Amino acid sequence: MIISVTNLKGGVGKSTLAQNLAVYLTQKGRKLCIADTDVEQQTSVKWGSVRAEIEDVNVPEIPVYQINPDTISDQILNKLGKNYDLVIIDGTPALTELTTRIIIMSDLVVTPILASATDVWALETFLKRFEEARITKEAMGGKVELFVVLNKYNERTNLDREIGETIGEMGINLLASKISTRVAYKEATVQGLGIMELKDKNAQGEIESLATEIEKLL
Amino acid sequence: MAKKTFNIKSTLSLPPKQLSVDDIESAIKQIHDAKTEPETSAKPTTLKEVSKTTTKKTSATKQPKKESRDVVETPVRKVRLSVDIHPSLHKRLKIKAIEHDSDIMHYVEMLIERDLGE
Ligand SMILES: Nc1ncnc2c1ncn2[C@@H]1O[C@H](COP(=O)(O)OP(=O)(O)O)[C@@H](O)[C@H]1O
Ligand SMILES: [Mg+2]
Questions:
Q1: Which atom of ligand 1 is nearest to the CA of A91?
Q2: pLDDT value for A130
Q3: What is the C-alpha separation between A28 and B6, in angstroms, rounded?
Q4: How many CA atoms are closer than 13 Å to the CA of B99, on its beta-carbon side?
Q5: What's the CATH number where A121 sits?
Q6: Which of A4, A41, A191, A198 is most buried as measured by Cβ atoms within 10 A of its Cβ?
Q7: Which residues lie near ion ligand 2 (Cβ < 5 Å)?
Q8: Which residue has the higher pLDDT, A153 or B10?
């Protein structure tokens, strides 16, 4: 099973959500790894290295693989896919061939966006590519679905709520779980941890809700 | 004559196929066709697990620190419309509202309703 957390935009929380899903689902007993395809930033690779240094039985290691854009299909399908129940791809912030490849390989695409007009515009562009890839994949007998999740969401802001509603009205699959802006997410990343390993109960509730929603789609 | 059995299972859709690397390559070709995109810097050529370590996890030695503040949930409310307007327009609006023995909020609501014909 392959889930990719991807969007053509950077800074929307792809890596943050990939890491937090990985920690949550590992705690739930899934044998998984992260495949970091962002060769420029390597956020998850760095996160994984920090995590690997933590000596705490309650913080199990999560393997993070640096993926080579040229051989990604082979690496993920033939090597990782055979060793893990679940591969979580931390996506690349571009609309390159690599992005298409990631979509086609995935069973589920989770696209984080921020509640801003520019993010909705970028989402439209991304969705066009997704549709092309989905149709091509379906013609070959495969299947892939996309779900959008609002990150850095502020329920009390008019614009955020409107954008959430608009996405729903555009007929896009929008996950009911929303992720708020919280310092804990930044802290978790630099410490090599997931939210579930920190103390912020509200953030934990968000990740639990998101992961549960996603698990039902698998 | 025996009744013809209808195999309902055969009518259900088959599970999606797992594509092979070759399938993916041909799909990519279909989509990207002749257009050649500048591929981002080809970095490592081998698949290596970067985070792997030999450190033994023994005890709960490290307690990660906490924590950020809460976001208080707000109850369901009316739709709020906020508009940025020029101070001079705001001043005229205030005067006009007072002339109508109303406040800005109700006056604006009335104007909108009137213009939308509701
Ligand atoms: N919900 C959130 N609350 C607070 N900070 C966040 C949240 N999501 C992401 N961030 C921060 O925003 C920045 C970009 O997030 P990141 O996950 O690296 O995005 P991407 O992988 O899409 O480029 C990081 O500094 C990250 O810690
Ligand atoms: Mg990233």
A1: 21
A2: 96
A3: 41
A4: 6
A5: 3.40.50.300
A6: A4
A7: A 14-15, 38, 43
A8: A153
Print pLDDT tens along chain B (118 aa).
555 555 555 555 567 788 999 999 999 999 988 555 454 444 444 566 765 544 444 444 444 433 333 444 445 466 788 888 999 999 898 888 887 878 888 889 889 888 887 5
8 Å CB contact of A69 and B40: yes
pLDDT of residue A86: 97
CB atoms closer than 10 angstroms to residue A14: 29
Q: Are strands A64-66 and A108-114 parallel, antiparallel or unpaired?
A: unpaired
User: Total domain count for chain A?
Assistant: 1
Dist. CA A64–CA A106, nearest whole Å: 17
Q: What is the pLDDT of residues A75-95, one digit of tens each?
A: 999 999 999 999 999 999 999
**CB A209, CB A16: distance < 8 Å:** no
In eight-state DSSP terms, residue A198 is S
CB A19 within 8 A of CB A63: no
* Cα A139 to middle of ligand 2, angstroms: 31
A53 — pLDDT class (breaks 50, 70, 90): very high
Task: Determine the Cα–Cα distance for residues A30 and A86; give it in Å rounded to an integer.
Answer: 7
Whether the Cβ atoms of residue A117 and residue A136 lie closer than 8 Å to each other = no
Residue B55 has what DSSP assignment?
A: P
Lookup: tokens for A9:
């935009």
Residue B21's pLDDT is what? 92
Task: Read off the pTM.
Answer: 0.76
Task: Record the tokens describing residue B54, joined without a space.
Answer: 């030999």
CA distance linking residue A17 with residue A26, whole number of Å: 14
Nearest to A210 by CA among A153, A128, A129: A153
CA neighbor of A13 nearest in space, from A144, A189, A201, A192: A189
Q: Which of B27, B59, B66 sits opposite A198 (nearest CB)?
A: B66
Distance A164 CA to ligand 1 centre (A): 19
Q: Could you list the residue range(s) of the whole structural domain that residue A35 is in?
A: 2-217
